[in-house]
């Protein structure tokens, strides 16, 4: 078969050339943007806490329940042809041991509890006995109160961390450094309790309290100052530190703000990646002065190249205000000079949730910040804009949005849309529309498809790029009767069409397929269903690849062709893991060359398949798609090899034996006569001159024979020992431990202490074929 050019599709591959009549009868246009997707995820326990559903930037969904956290990861599978969403499920159980806050010496605490429980004053005894925090013997609720995902790049693999708060007020940070395995990175409740004990449970900057635990007010104060209510992560802040050799090193930090029951704000600062309690750089306590705090959110604003931030605190009584966060140790960090009150009236309407969205104001031609808060059945909004006159604040309420209180609110990270859900199961979409100085909202009701309409919804979460909406729900009332049982389910609906997702992927500034998994899955769904790549998408993608040569667009092309290949495959009749019970067929040839025995039927089947024109056309089409895949993979491999050789040239001054097989990579690039890249030829010439005829070959660790570089995927010595090659450095992985791509595309070796920093940076990159992290 002739070689296939990677810049265009093979002539025989059907790419969906649609006529005008076919476009009018396009089934995707009839579906609309809101379509229910399978599968339906059943939860084993009832949901619990506030906002039980959250969606991370790396496309993992957490559902809070009474038994723990159920986690679902959306994966764009390129090795299967099922049209359903591919979800990898894990869970984090609730600890069996009840969290006990440290408030003082154990003996003194025991005497105080005996005193208050047996007090003759009913006001004192009942206030103590009915408080589940002060008196856990009453019975502690078990479950998850709230979860919060960190931004990307916070763990060792560059992914998100999960902060969880249980109903017994235990605040922990979880990491998934190993595939589908969660571990506790830090117990912040314990760490903060120890710091309070050291400073004598005093207020920030004050003297230790002279009161003891036998005073009920003092006992309540010590408990409330370390009882978390909410917590939220900030965005990653990168600063440059000058090392001893005068080189500048980028150091990333992230902040976790924790709102306490007494109104204190505890701001934890971590260095990245967060590996344990040793990653804590500082812990600052800020007094907010907010009575009965209920909700917390970060306010982040960019003006004139400076990033400002603060903390938005809402109260159960109604007020909302922004507090400055003074962190002198963080370079390039700016905050407000004084608190800014967004809503002052104590109207007894509690603030349930707060979202802050950064937007561009087309009328004022500058950046602005939109703060929205769910207050009962109303939506409070506040537009903040910095001008020459100072900080301008415009606020109001959206009334008539829901007839019942809002139970959940979410907003997409890469868009301006806001989604709200009320107790009666109504979901609304609000899109801000700017006026001269204020903002108005376009309201749309999301018509839920069959299977979701009429159900009682407890929480919603939107994907990072607004492609999917996840809903956790139970069965509603039927003919005025409550159901016998209430199974809790997580279901997914689309918010965009595959055409809209494809257009966003082509014009996206993110340049990463993994970060846009939700959009990518919509395109995957259409290719699998239609068994062809949309014609407009393919034409525009080919033009952009030809004009720009962007590696991101090449990886998008590879993804589409791989999905197209899977759509041409027939689904297996039985599960692949299930063993077959058929007897192995034996073919026995007689002296005349005939075939006797049970094997004759197989040959007849092959002959009949070759005579079938449809089967023959499908086989030819599949072969051409395979050639197309190999051509695109070869192009991506050569481009990455050029980048690796560039790093080798920049960081080696003399003839040096690095762990990268430099000579083998150079020979591999020059061995292909069809590869004509002038830049690569010049780079290889400079490297060969610097190497001074040294080859530095790799050797097999088993037999010490030379490992030739003849294949980009594996290395085989003369004795037949085969080793897989690292997709990032192209070194043969001769250890038992290595990392694998999330989509199982390739492997990469683990960094070792003797590796220089530039090699460690190469090994930190994503997969060169699909942008997925290597775990």
UniProtKB/TrEMBL annotation:
GO cellular component term of the entry, any? transcription factor TFIIIC complex
Q: Which organism is it from?
A: Oncorhynchus mykiss
* Domain of life per record: Eukaryota
Q: Which Pfam families match?
A: DUF5921, TFIIIC_delta, zf-TFIIIC
What biological processes does GO assign it? transcription initiation at RNA polymerase III promoter
What's the protein here called? Answer: Ral transcription factor IIIC subunit 4
**Which parts of the sequence belong to the Transcription factor IIIC 90kDa subunit N-terminal domain?**
55-496
- Residues covered by the DUF5921 domain: 497-573
- Domain Transcription factor IIIC putative zinc-finger per the UniProt entry, residue ranges: 691-742
Molecular-function annotations in GO: histone acetyltransferase activity
């Amino acid at each position: 078969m002739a070689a296939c050019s990677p810049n265009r599709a093979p002539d025989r591959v059907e790419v969906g050339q649609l006529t005008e009549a076919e476009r009018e009868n396009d089934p995707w246009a009839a579906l609309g943007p809101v379509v229910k997707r399978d599968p339906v995820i059943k939860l084993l326990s009832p949901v619990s806490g506030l906002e039980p559903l959250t969606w991370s930037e790396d496309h993992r969904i957490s559902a809070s329940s009474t038994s723990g956290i159920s986690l679902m990861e959306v994966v764009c599978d390129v090795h299967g042809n099922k049209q359903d969403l591919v979800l990898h499920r894990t869970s984090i159980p609730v600890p069996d041991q009840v969290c006990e806050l440290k408030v003082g010496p154990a003996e003194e605490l025991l005497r105080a509890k005996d005193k208050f429980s047996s007090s003759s004053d009913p006001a004192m005894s009942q206030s103590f006995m009915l408080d589940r925090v002060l008196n856990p013997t009453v019975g502690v609720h078990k479950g998850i109160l709230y979860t919060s995902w960190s931004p990307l790049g916070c763990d060792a693999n560059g992914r998100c961390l999960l902060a969880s708060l249980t109903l017994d007020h235990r605040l922990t940070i979880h990491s998934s450094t190993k595939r589908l395995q969660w571990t506790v990175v830090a117990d912040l409740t314990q760490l903060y309790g120890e710091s309070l004990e050291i400073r004598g449970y005093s207020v920030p900057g004050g003297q230790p309290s002279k009161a003891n635990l036998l005073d009920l007010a003092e006992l309540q104060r010590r408990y409330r100052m370390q009882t978390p209510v909410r917590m939220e992560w900030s965005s990653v802040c990168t600063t440059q530190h000058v090392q001893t050799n005068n080189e500048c090193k980028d150091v990333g930090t992230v902040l976790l703000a924790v709102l306490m029951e007494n109104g204190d704000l505890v701001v934890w600062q971590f260095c990245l990646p967060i590996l344990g309690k040793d990653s804590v750089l500082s812990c600052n306590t800020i007094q907010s002065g907010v009575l009965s705090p209920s909700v917390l959110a970060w306010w982040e604003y960019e003006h004139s190249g400076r990033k400002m931030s603060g903390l938005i605190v809402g109260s159960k009584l109604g007020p909302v205000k922004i507090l400055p966060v003074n962190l002198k140790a963080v370079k390039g960090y700016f905050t407000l000079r004084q608190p800014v009150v967004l809503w002052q009236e104590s109207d007894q309407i509690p603030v349930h949730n707060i979202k802050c969205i950064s937007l561009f104001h087309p009328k004022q031609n500058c950046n602005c910040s939109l703060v929205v808060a769910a207050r009962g059945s109303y939506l409070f909004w506040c537009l903040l804009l910095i001008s020459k006159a100072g900080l301008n604040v415009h606020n109001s309420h959206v009334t008539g949005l829901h007839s019942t209180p809002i139970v959940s609110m979410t907003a997409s990270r890469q868009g301006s849309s806001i989604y709200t859900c009320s107790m009666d199961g109504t979901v609304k979409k609000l899109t801000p529309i700017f006026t001269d100085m204020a903002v108005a909202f376009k309201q749309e009701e999301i018509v839920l498809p069959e299977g979701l309409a009429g159900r009682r919804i407890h929480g919603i979460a939107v994907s990072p790029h607004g492609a999917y909406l996840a809903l956790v729900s139970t069965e509603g009332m039927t003919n005025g009767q409550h159901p016998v049982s209430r199974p809790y389910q997580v279901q997914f609906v689309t918010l965009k069409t595959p055409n809209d997702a494809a257009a966003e992927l082509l014009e996206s500034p993110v340049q990463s397929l993994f970060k846009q998994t939700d959009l990518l899955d919509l395109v995957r769904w259409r290719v699998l269903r239609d068994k062809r790549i949309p014609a407009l998408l393919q034409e525009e993608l080919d033009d952009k690849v030809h004009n720009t040569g962007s590696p991101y667009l090449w990886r998008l092309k590879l993804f589409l062709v791989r999905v197209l290949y899977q759509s041409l495959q027939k689904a297996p009749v039985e599960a692949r893991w299930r063993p077959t019970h058929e007897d192995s067929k034996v073919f026995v040839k007689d002296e005349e060359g005939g075939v006797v025995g049970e094997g004759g039927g197989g040959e007849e089947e092959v002959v009949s398949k070759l005579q079938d024109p449809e089967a023959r056309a499908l086989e030819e089409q599949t072969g051409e798609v395979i050639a197309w895949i190999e051509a695109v993979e070869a192009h991506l491999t050569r481009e990455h090899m050029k980048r690796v050789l560039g790093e080798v040239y920049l960081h080696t001054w003399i003839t040096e034996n690095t762990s990268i097989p430099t000579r083998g990579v150079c020979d591999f690039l020059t061995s292909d006569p069809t590869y004509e890249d002038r830049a690569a030829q010049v780079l290889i010439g400079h490297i060969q001159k610097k190497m001074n005829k040294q080859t530095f070959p790799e050797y097999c660790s088993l037999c010490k024979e030379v490992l030739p570089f003849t294949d980009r995927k594996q290395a085989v010595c003369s004795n037949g020992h085969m080793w897989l090659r690292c997709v990032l450095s192209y070194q043969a992985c001769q250890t038992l431990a290595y990392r694998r791509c999330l989509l199982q595309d390739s492997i990469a070796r683990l960094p070792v202490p003797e590796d220089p920093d530039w090699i460690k940076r190469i090994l930190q990159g994503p997969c060169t074929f699909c942008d997925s992290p290597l775990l």
